[in-house]
Amino acid sequence: MAPRVPKAELTGFTASVIKRFSRKMLGKVPESLGVAWNNPDVFKAGASLGRRVQKWDQTDESLKSFAHMAVASQVGCSWCLDFNYFQAQNNNLDLAKASQVPRWREADVFTPLERDVLEYAEAMTTTPPTVTDELSDRLLKRLGAAALVELNAVIGFANYTTRCNTALGIESEGFSDACEIPLAARPADSGVASTP
Fold first, then answer.
1. Every domain of the chain and the residues it spans
2. End-to-end CA distance of the chain, in Å?
3. What's the rounded Cα separation, in Å, for the pair 126 and 55?
4. Count of CB atoms within 10 A of residue 158's CB?
5. Distance CA 176, CA 72 (A)
6. Which of 8, 38, 161, 163 has the most CB atoms around it within 10 Å of its CB?
7. Distances from the Cα of 30 to the Cαs of 22, 150, 188, in angstroms?
């Protein structure tokens, strides 16, 4: 990884807790933490929001995971795509489906609801957003208002993390190498950023 901001040394009590937690959860301390640690207040705020997002329970976990991965694939954030695929395995989600998110339009493994969620994630991520009334209505009917609002916020959070990581030059750290099924690559002619 060659980030655009130098990595800071993780020092202090909070940093030692973060390192211990990272080793337990991931098996290592991600290099990207050193970049974020240049401003511990920003790191803590983002981590706090991330923990809150993980606790929301109105939308199916698979749908939220697929949506985050779709955003990461579209934006070109190899770190988020790699990490979220690794998390899909840890959360016992369908890896055959999760592995195909980068090429979801060509894959035949997704249900109509999952396809709508993936389309919604991409439509929210496009600048300017291209969410249609029809797509929103379909999701509202299938998910309900509370779940759609949650999905919307999850996709917004995914845009925050993927765009920050990409702009800072944070790249994949190989978390998904532990997964039995390889992560598919986004088609080269998709018209959006590709991930390494």
1. 15-55, 58-196
2. 12
3. 26
4. 26
5. 14
6. 161
7. 7, 28, 28
Binning the chain into helix, strand and coil, the percentages to the nearest 5 are 65, 0, 35
Task: Record the pTM.
Answer: 0.91
pLDDT tens-place string over residues 11-50: 999 999 999 999 998 889 999 999 999 999 999 999 999 9
In this structure, is the dihedral angle defined by the CA atoms of residues 106, 110, 116 and 119, taken in order, positive or negative? negative
Digit-coded pLDDT (tens) for 141-192: 999 999 999 999 999 999 999 999 999 999 999 988 888 888 888 887 655 5
Provide DSSP, the chain: ---SSPPPP--SHHHHHHHHHHHHHHSS--THHHHHTTSHHHHHHHHHHHHHHHH--SS-HHHHHHHHHHHHHHHT-HHHHHHHHHHHHHTT--HHHHTTGGGTTT-S---HHHHHHHHHHHHHHSSS----HHHHHHHHHHH-HHHHHHHHHHHHHHHHHHHHHHHHT----SGGGGSSSPPPPPPTTSSS----
Structure tokens at 85: 């695929």
Q: The domain 58-196: what is its CATH number? A: 1.20.1290.10
